[in-house]
Amino acid sequence: MVSYFGQDDRSITSMEQLRIFGITVCVCICLVLPAYAQVKLHQLEPDLQVPEVVFENPTPGKRVQQVPESYQHTDIHHMLYLPTDWRPGQKYPVIVEYAGNAWQSSLGTVEGSALGYGISGGRGVIWLCLPFVDVVAGNNAKTWWGDVDATIDYCLSVVEDICTNYGGDSSLLFIAGFSRGAIACNYIALHNDEIASLWRGFICHSHYDGVRQWDYSDSDPISASDRLERLKERPQFVSHEVSVDETKDYLTKAYPQGDFTFMSLTFAEHTDKWVLYDLPERDTLRVWFSSQLKDE
């Protein structure tokens, strides 16, 4: 018997064995890689440590708790970090960050956030972690939005204060968030025309407004599309552990004209702490952020 390629039966058998071996290797790689991805982050040591919270006046390199005057008799508060190179009279970009829900390793608090610090490395950028305001309970909501209108008003007021009193550059305001906070980049930060007008760019890690429906009002795709229209031409960096394809597919249909940069991370942990590690993905995010600071 002669094969199509002119080989005898023994050659065919050998090639078949090689083919089976090759398939086996590919299958093993496909099985091993996800397991490797799940432990990769834990195999590393972080090269950054988020500064501890102190109850002092803001100074360079300190992460301080602040309470607006109208909330003095509540537990509602935010975190302000002035970079180590901060100087009075100078202007600085501002990363405004929202935390994820309290779930597993996520504290759901302004104290537990990390994205802004990992992006800047503590230099050159003011980092502001804002709460979801629960007016009734008088504290920061650890799950979902609290009072949406109060949360928006809080953001508008504090951002104005940071720009007026601490050198925040109102033309270089970035909104960032993890999980619930990533959804908030649109759900809160594009909720109405006033707050939507603040932002130069958006950093959304793990989840995205409109991709799935959650247990709160206006989480449906139609409402999310209305908010997305306020994005206009401004850029968004969208990332997700393992795969960002679901969000990418959604935005390809929902807002094909958008300026989106997508990145899948090589680990499976649902966390914002990856920015505290020396990873190629962090380098990619930093390069994107730096490019947005340049004059158009």
Q: How are the SSEs placed, and which strands pair?
A:
Blueprint (H helix, E strand, L loop, with lengths): L8 H32 L12 E2 L8 E4 L11 E4 L10 E7 L16 H6 L5 E4 L3 E2 L4 E2 L7 H18 L2 E11 L1 H8 L5 H4 L4 E5 L15 H8 L6 E7 L3 H10 L4 E7 L14 H14 L3
Parallel strand pairs: 1-2, 4-5, 4-8, 8-9, 9-10, 10-11
Antiparallel strand pairs: 2-3, 3-5, 6-7
Structural overview:
The chain is of the alpha/beta class. It has 2 domains: 1-43; 51-293, Rossmann fold. 34% of the residues lie in helices and 19% in strands. The chain has 8 helices and 11 strands. It has helices at residues 9-40, 115-120, 148-165, 180-187, 193-196, 221-228, 245-254, 280-293; strands spanning 53-54, 63-66, 78-81, 92-98, 126-129, 133-134, 139-140, 168-178, 201-205, 235-241, 259-265. It has a 9-stranded mixed sheet, sandwiched between helices. Strands 6-7 form a two-stranded antiparallel sheet. Strand 10, helix 7 and strand 11 (259-265) form a beta-alpha-beta unit. It is globular, with a radius of gyration of 23 Å.
